[in-house]
Amino acid sequence: MLLLTVIFTQTGCWDRKEVEDLAIVLAIAIEPGSGNNIKITVQNVNPASAGKGSVVGSGSGMQTGTKSYRNRSIEGKTMFDAIRELSRQSPQQLFFAHNQLIIFSEDLAQKRGVSDIIDFLERNPQIRRNTWVLVGRGEMATLLDEPGRLQTTPSQRIFDIINQRDFSSKYAIKRLGDFLEMLESKDKQAYTAVVEYTPNLAVPREHEEHGMEHGMEQGQPPEPHDNIELRGTAVFREDKMVGWLNPEESRGLLWVRGEVKGGIIDIPSPDEKNKPISLEILSSKTKLEPQINEGQLQININVKTETNIAETTSTMNIARPEKIKELEKLVGKAVQAEIQAALDKTMQEYTTDVLGFAEAIHRKFPSEWKSLGKNWSSTFPTVEVTITVDAKIRRIGLVSDPLKPRL
């Protein structure tokens, strides 16, 4: 009995791995390599940075600590081949269970497609289905590197931006599980957000005056920061990216799909066209109503949204009921314009149904869909669409009569 007890207690944690033996992956970026190879860039936590300061600057004597992350790039014939080659060069085992982001380069998504990569991601048990999927512009190694801001990792910055998405609703982003479902479905086409960086060479004055607070020696200029932005939405046909929607068109897509959670709508004042009024989106609800009239497919897009007046530069008295009605009509027109912009891009230019029309028609007309679905790519651009927007203003704020300057 004593021998059995010893055996079981000794084998209870046989598969346990120490944290210091793992390279905890935070982001994976994939782009074309040389020839038919693919190139992956993996960002992982740098254990050497624990408890140390930040690195600012690249000159001699400017380093005061260690980066909190480490980027490593390598090529391979397949994802699995590249990752195994990367593991061969690392003393630590790559650990993907905490990965937050999967980024396909725009070049890869457009020319090669993502199906080969998706196969590995779908089979790997460590890759979680709630991982965010993005399309990246530019060099992936540069996108995942951010000189001058080392208190956090670039992947965490992107993750934090994603968590603020409902404040603008200017891009549509999907998690891996949803992205896989769209790629594999006959009724859906895939889409997700576009991430890019832009160099920012401006140096704020307070950084010059308080350089020591930012990890710099007194009088040394800070390194320029890169602005990481999520701008618009990449749309796919099958497994290849066919184009992208700008932020306004992206919100049009979100209106159609009933996924607008917040954001700002700017409209001109009815009394002073050059004086904008900003309204905060509180909620929205969309209903797609398919119809078949004499063989012609029709989709009625019915949107209901509630807003608050957040700011006005107009001197118009917004407390008057008739003025509220005018503003509600203008909000409705603004929403309708965003939807129409998304329809024009997806139906006429890209001819890819990321709008959910096929799903709606299939649900309502399952028998007719058997024949419609066979030629949907050619039928989709011919669908007649009507847009109805019911916009309501719930609150106008604490001030009903705007401040009028003294003359």
Automatic annotation (TrEMBL):
<feature type="domain" description="Spore germination protein N-terminal">
    <location>
        <begin position="15"/>
        <end position="196"/>
    </location>
</feature>
<comment type="similarity">
    <text>Belongs to the GerABKC lipoprotein family.</text>
</comment>
<dbReference type="GO" id="GO:0009847">
    <property type="term" value="P:spore germination"/>
</dbReference>
<dbReference type="InterPro" id="IPR046953">
    <property type="entry name" value="Spore_GerAC-like_C"/>
</dbReference>
<dbReference type="InterPro" id="IPR038501">
    <property type="entry name" value="Spore_GerAC_C_sf"/>
</dbReference>
<dbReference type="Pfam" id="PF05504">
    <property type="entry name" value="Spore_GerAC"/>
</dbReference>
<keyword id="KW-0309">Germination</keyword>
<keyword id="KW-0564">Palmitate</keyword>
<dbReference type="Pfam" id="PF25198">
    <property type="entry name" value="Spore_GerAC_N"/>
</dbReference>
<keyword id="KW-0732">Signal</keyword>
<dbReference type="InterPro" id="IPR008844">
    <property type="entry name" value="Spore_GerAC-like"/>
</dbReference>
<dbReference type="InterPro" id="IPR057336">
    <property type="entry name" value="GerAC_N"/>
</dbReference>
<feature type="domain" description="Spore germination GerAC-like C-terminal">
    <location>
        <begin position="232"/>
        <end position="397"/>
    </location>
</feature>
<dbReference type="GO" id="GO:0016020">
    <property type="term" value="C:membrane"/>
</dbReference>
<protein>
    <submittedName>
        <fullName>Germination protein, Ger(X)C family</fullName>
    </submittedName>
</protein>
<keyword id="KW-0449">Lipoprotein</keyword>
<keyword id="KW-0472">Membrane</keyword>
